[in-house]
Amino acid sequence: MKNKDELVIAKRKFKSRLIVGTGKYRNMLECAKAVKISGAEIVTVAVRRVNIIDKKRPMLMDYINPKKITYLPNTAGCFNSDEALRTLRLAREIGGWKLVKLEVLGDKKNLFPEMIETLKSTEILSKEGFEVMVYCNDDPLMSKRLENVGACAIMPLAAPIGSGLGIQNKTNIKIISQQTKLPVIIDAGIGEASDASIAMELGCDGVLINTAIAKAKNPFQMAEAMKFAVIAGRKSYLSGRIKKNIYGSSSSPKKGII
Amino acid sequence: MKNKNKIKIKVNGRKLQLNQSSTLDSVVKKLNIPLNKVAIELNRKIINKKKIKNIKIVNNDNVEIVYFIGGG
């Protein structure tokens, strides 16, 4: 086994394979603490209007230092390419963010990605010099097309955003991770720690989790559980599991039985 | 007219009344916006934050100021 098992995204190296979202927490203090416990080195953030009335407005950057944790601006809430491009161009302007998470939604109820607009946006953003991590369906063909137009990471959903259903199509996720040299990061649908381990055992390079941590009864404990689940899943994947057998195989030697 | 020297603009969807000779810089200062944590759009065009002192605001201008918040 390699000593250094790092997650590499667009030539940036990370020790942690867990990326966490910063939404849905009760407050920013809780969010910052959960992020710290999770050990994540990348957090997703949304771009929104500043509240111009409340001059004491709390700012995420005051709680999570972008010099220590990589901010990954997203396009959550965008339903077409123009909205997504506008959002990420603004995100870049805040302070030079090139590494971004593209997420173009197609349906307000299930929050599935609108893949035609996603593909179009990926191509434009890549040409503009963005490093685009792309939220997408668990579709191997579309994943390949995203790679071909310049995506720097493929981020297939496990299940709808915030659903907590876990990985719905393990076969497709396995195919997606086997067919590409790009990092594959499960984005959306994780519910509990075992889901994160399964994602890693399928060969994914990382997992992105928000709701499952933020909305757990104990977010801090769940942040820690997810941290270890990702590590366990990764080690399990790298260790080479045993072959499945429908018959039993005794663990104790037969020799010397009395 | 009472407000002859005033102009009306919109910032983040809210109406704001300013003096006629206002710049984008004066809008940012008036609203107490930390410039290093935001991006600014003027009439759908992204503005270079270093140049806001030289950008004059005129009647009916539409300003958007955004920042990072928690998200997934």
What does this molecule look like?
The complex is a heterodimer of chains A (258) and B (72). Chain A is globular, with a radius of gyration of 20 Å. In chain A, helix 5 runs parallel beside helix 6. Chain A has 258 residues and is α/β, with parallel strands linked by helices. Chain A has a 5-stranded parallel sheet with strand order 5-4-3-10-9. Chain A contains 9 helices and 10 strands. Chain A has a single domain, classed as Aldolase class I (TIM Barrel, Alpha-Beta Barrel), CATH 3.20.20. With 72 residues, chain B is mainly β. Chain B has one domain: Ubiquitin-like (UB roll). Helix content of chain B is 10%, strand content 38%. Chain B is globular. The chains are: A alpha/beta (258), B mainly beta (72). Chains A and B meet through strand 4 and helix 3 of A and strand 3 and strand 5 of B. Strand 4 of chain A pairs antiparallel with strand 5 of chain B, so a sheet runs across the interface.
Mean pLDDT of chain B: 91
Strand content of chain B: 35-45%
Please give the share of residues in helix of chain A: 25-40%
At CATH level 3, the topology of chain B is: Ubiquitin-like (UB roll)
Give the helix proportion of chain B (percent range).
under 10%
**Order of neighbouring strands in the sheet with most strands of chain B:** 2-1-5-3-4
Largest sheet of chain B: 5 strands, mixed
Architecture of chain A in CATH? Alpha-Beta Barrel
Annotated CATH homologous superfamily of chain B: Beta-grasp domain
Shape of chain B: globular
* Biggest β-sheet strands, sense, barrel of chain A: 5 strands, parallel
Q: If helices are DSSP runs of H or I spanning 4 or more residues, what is the number of helices of chain B?
A: 1
Distance between the termini of chain A: 41 Å
Low-confidence stretches of chain A: none
| CATH C-level category of chain B | Alpha Beta
Overall geometric form of chain A: globular
What separation lies between the terminal Cα atoms of chain B? Answer: 50 Å
CATH class of chain A: Alpha Beta
Number of helices of chain A: 9
